[in-house]
Amino acid sequence: MLVILSALHHLMRKVDxxxxxxxxxxxxxxxxxxxxxxxxxxxxxxxxYLPPYVSNLSMPFQYLVLLLTVTALWKxxx
Length: 78
Prior knowledge:
Blueprint: H1 2-37, H2 52-55, H3 59-77
């Protein structure tokens, strides 16, 4: 019985981690959709889920971090 409960607990933790990864992936997907669908020349909206250290940077550096992040994601996708 204890083995079953331990295995169940392990599976529940794994499910929680997968849900978190899914939410992050969905957030990234929405951010990329907005980036591709916004008018030319419009500045991107900085999503609220960026790490705190990015929010504390000045605006040009925030966009630079966002651009570098999107570039790294694009490399993973392609």
